Amino acid sequence: MVKRNVFIIGTGITGFGENYEISAGKLASKALTRAIENTKITKESVQSTFIGSLVSGSNSQPSIGANCLRESHIKTPHVRIEAGNASGAAAFHQAYLGILSGVFDCIAVVGVEKLSDFVNAGIVERILSSTIDYQWEFEMGATLTSLYAILTKAHMKEFQTTKEQLAAVPVKNHKNGVNNPNAQFRKEISIERFLNAKRIAEPIGKFDPATYCDGSASVILASEKFILQNKDISSKVPILGSSYASDSLALHHRKLLTELNASKTAAATAYKMADIKPVDINVAEVHDSYPIGEILAIEDLGFFKKGEGGKAVEEGLTEQNGKVSINTSGGLKARGDPFGATGIAQIIEIVEQMRREAGKRQVDSVNYGLTQNVMGTGALTYVNILGEEEVKK
After folding, report:
1. Do residue 221 and residue 77 come from a single domain?
2. Is the domain of 114 the same as that of 222?
3. 374 and 353: one domain?
4. For FRET with 338, which of 17, 29, 345, 367 sits at 20 to 30 Å CA-CA?
5. In angstroms, how far apart are the furthest CA atoms of the chain?
6. What is the arrangement of strands in the sheet containing 368-375, beginning at the earlier edge strand?
7. Conformational region of residue 388, where left means phi above 0, alpha means psi within -120 to 50, and beta covers everything else
8. In a domain, 207, yes or no
């Protein structure tokens, strides 16, 4: 059993959306500076910085780490970690291990992406080809959207999942996003609009996918020793479990198309580390880049039986203060999806729920929260479990 001696002591986030006038380095610096200010520690206390990003830091945006730290006036070693759409969660996990090992006592984690530049250039799909099988999928004309359409059709065929149930996912998440001041879209949308939208890869419609955008999010991790030495730290949310698992890149190499095995495996390890069961989770942020993504997640994470995810969403069991509150932030769909920042933003939402700082999004009772961040069509998944300070096992 892993000793629970790693805590989140500070958070910082920018608004998600289109930020043409600001560089990726400045976006990252904003989130990092806010996170440090939130902790009430000095910049000099940070021993290392882990930066998660798929695009920023490569190609036309080099030296993202150096630019971020220069803008923040912080001098620490830094490393950029890339794991596709799960880059933020990957950086978080590596920082967690860094403190767990005893090598570090205080690490800053930053997730950042500035995708507006690449959307305009029309090359986002080529960038995302690194998250799927390049030879057997991308070069054959497949995209993330078409591959998720295959996953959607498989679930619909085997479990009679309906388009209405699928549409209920983004409808719920847009409703939640209204109350998130950092969300890209803060407007409710009707289920009829989703159902009547033009199909872009049957059965996926124009309004189903999450939108690529710009944004940054940051958290500060610390050891118990560091917290005892810094009396001004007023909040410490324990990381009870942090795990990841992988699967085949290509869909045709997987045993089933109706589950993401990497999510199931990573979740099982995280639950064991936290010594809890799925039924104990009160709130979760899951990867809803497409509606089927959330339905698969709530099944694979153990919240609902396989095949019953669509029905659960349709019946309101995943709404705020439902059986389990899913994507209270608005999820990727309403909050926006700046790949490298997404996994960190998920964690920040759970931290705010634990601190009772989520405003109108606040869930009434929160003891345990979970995040699930996925790369591509599920070839890599990170799962994290956080708990209240008062929770004792």
Report:
1. yes
2. yes
3. yes
4. 367
5. 58
6. 78-81, 48-52, 106-114, 214-223, 6-13, 237-246, 380-387, 368-375, 283-285, 325-326
7. beta
8. no
- Whether residue 161 sits in one domain with residue 49: no
**Given a cut of 60, is residue 190 above it in pLDDT?**
yes
Strands 78-81 and 48-52: parallel
Calculate the average pLDDT of the chain: 92
Cα separation of the two ends of the chain: 12
User: pTM for this one?
Assistant: 0.95
- Are both 314 and 220 inside the same structural domain? no
Which of 139, 188, 199 lies closest to 163, judged by CA? 199
75 pLDDT higher than 90: no
DSSP H helices in the chain: 24-39, 64-72, 87-100, 116-121, 124-128, 144-159, 163-177, 191-196, 224-229, 261-274, 291-300, 309-314, 331-335, 339-354
| 305 and 346 housed in the same domain | yes
Check whether residue 86 and residue 26 sit in a common domain: yes
CA distance 120 to 115: 9
Q: What is the pLDDT of residue 391?
A: 40
pLDDT value for 291: 98
Number of domains into which the chain is organized: 2
Measured distance CA(80)–CA(53) in Å, rounded: 7
Q: Do 10 and 63 fall into the same domain?
A: yes
Sign, Cα dihedral of 277, 282, 283, 287: positive
- Which two tokens mark 142? 């497949």
Q: What's at 201, amino acid-wise?
A: A
Given a contact cutoff of 8 angstroms between Cβ atoms, the answer to whether 352 and 343 are in contact is no
- Please state, in angstroms and rounded to a whole number, the distance separating the CA atoms of residues 326 and 307: 17
Range of the domain at 42: 6-121+212-237
Distances (CA, A) of 168 to 63, 192, 317: 41, 10, 11
Here the CATH number for the domain that contains residue 64 is: 3.40.47.10
